[in-house]
Amino acid sequence: MQGLLSQLVQSVIDMPGRFIDIALSDPISAVLILIGATFVGLSSAVFGYLSIGAVLSLFSGAGGRQPPQAGR
């Protein structure tokens, strides 16, 4: 298990260097890496924003529907 964890950590450390090598090998590769990074970054930012909003509304009690009023 520790060997797998150490390999995972090492591959995460090595990944930026590999991405740079691939991006510098061809201009199209650089554009594709940039588009992919932008897509993943924006998606993660939107998901984080929505998750934080959900957690805050859970504790603040803001939002949601009110129960129906009697006699209306």
What are the key terms here?
72 residues, 0% strand, mainly alpha
Q: Can you offer a commentary on this structure?
A:
- With 72 residues, this protein is mainly α.
- It has a domain at 27-59.
- Helix content is 81%, strand content 0%.
- The protein has two helices and no strands.
- It has helices at residues 2-25, 27-60.
- It is elongated, with a radius of gyration of 22 Å.
- The termini are far apart.
- The mean pLDDT is 89.
Brief characterization of the structure:
With 72 residues, the chain is an all-alpha fold. It contains 2 helices and no strands.
Strand tally is 0
Structural class: mainly alpha
Q: If helices are DSSP runs of H or I spanning 4 or more residues, what is the number of helices?
A: 2
Biggest β-sheet: count, sense, barrel? none
Fraction in helix: over 70%
Task: Give the SSE string.
Answer: HH
Distance between the termini: 64 Å
Unreliable residue stretches:
none
As a whole number of angstroms, the C-alpha radius of gyration is: 22 Å
Shape: elongated
Average residue pLDDT: 89
Strand content: under 5%
